[in-house]
User: Which sequence fits this backbone?
């Protein structure tokens, strides 16, 4: 039987949060099955905390080479994924994305997609540029609904720029210029998920991916079945790493919307139930957290004033501030390389 700490360490090992991965940026993104990328900066910080020797230019170059892409993927949200995974899995997600688009009524979706494909074949567009052009052809439709339908139904990738985190506030979207696998296997997706997120239930995989109907898929696969905390049945890959709950776990900083926090239906393997409300906000934002002994122990923010960069931490569990400062100052040096001074501060009232 796996204890909660066993489950925590198995997950951290596969997320490269016990030891940083030694390899290139595309390799670690593939191993993680992607990183949530609602905003441009968090994926950079998520890779930094998992990849040894990572430099900002490594990810910037991979995006411009289209080895990595930022696109709508899991849970119908923006993710940083390898181009190969975009091609392999985008068609598998189409039913989920189509269902999201069809919450708007009175739209001829096939016609809208055809019009968007025709426009985007000429050049990439921002959605502020694309929506009015679509509304010229569909004057009775709500312009935001048109844009959302295109975002969900048309495979698109964001076009990187020369901005600090590779994308401007209003990025352009373009056609991917690659052939998509027309018949991806859900079994392959399950295998990739377990390799990245540890022993899990079908509900965990469905929560992360947005796909339904995975329970019979997993039941038919040649997977190891384990007893988890509270007797829950967990599925895992045979011979996958499970280092044990007594393995030390270092301080790690996870950015906003980190894939680890969002990767399971039951988040207690890394985030205690009593702390969920301190991490998830009413407007669905997931705050940046830091891990102590493998579990979320507080939230953090970077504050910049002139040449001064501060890491403001808000502990909600026991926190060794000396060790936190050591890793935190390294994080600041990466995130704010042009700052002249760096410091860690504990939020007032904590």
Assistant:
């Amino acid at each position: 039987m796996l204890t909660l700490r066993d489950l925590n360490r198995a997950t951290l090992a596969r997320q490269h949060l016990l030891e940083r991965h030694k390899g290139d940026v595309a390799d670690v993104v593939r191993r993680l099955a992607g990183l949530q990328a609602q905003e441009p900066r968090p994926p950079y910080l998520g890779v930094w905390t998992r990849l040894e020797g990572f430099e900002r230019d490594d990810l910037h170059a991979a995006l411009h080479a289209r080895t990595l892409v930022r696109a709508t993927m899991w849970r119908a949200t923006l993710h940083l994924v390898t181009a190969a995974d975009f091609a392999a899995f985008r068609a598998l997600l189409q039913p989920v994305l189509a269902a999201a688009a069809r919450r708007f009524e009175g739209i001829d979706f096939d016609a809208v997609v055809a019009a968007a494909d025709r426009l985007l074949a000429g050049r990439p567009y921002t959605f502020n540029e694309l929506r009015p052009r679509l509304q010229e052809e569909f004057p009775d439709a709500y312009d935001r609904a048109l844009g959302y339908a295109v975002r969900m139904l048309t495979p698109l990738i964001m076009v990187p720029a020369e901005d600090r985190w590779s994308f401007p506030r209003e990025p352009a979207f373009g056609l991917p210029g690659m052939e998509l696998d027309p018949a991806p296997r859900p079994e392959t997706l399950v295998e990739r998920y377990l390799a990245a997120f540890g022993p899990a239930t079908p509900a965990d995989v469905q929560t992360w991916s947005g796909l339904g109907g995975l329970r019979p898929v997993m039941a038919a696969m040649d997977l190891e079945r384990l007893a988890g905390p509270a007797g829950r049945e967990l599925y895992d890959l045979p011979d996958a790493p499970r280092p044990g709950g007594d393995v030390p776990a270092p301080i790690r900083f996870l950015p906003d919307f980190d894939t680890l926090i969002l990767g399971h239906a039951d988040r207690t393997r890394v985030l205690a139930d009593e702390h969920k409300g301190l991490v998830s906000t009413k407007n669905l934002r997931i705050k940046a957290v830091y891990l102590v002994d493998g579990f979320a122990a507080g939230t953090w923010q970077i504050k910049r004033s002139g040449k001064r960069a501060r890491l403001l931490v808000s502990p909600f569990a026991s926190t060794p501030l000396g060790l936190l400062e050591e890793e935190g100052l390294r994080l600041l040096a990466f995130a704010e390389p042009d700052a002249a001074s760096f410091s860690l501060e504990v939020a007032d009232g904590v």
Q: What stands out?
A: Residues 21-174 form one domain. The two ends are 37 Å apart (CA to CA). The first strand starts at residue 35 and ends at 36. The chain is about 40% helix and 15% strand.
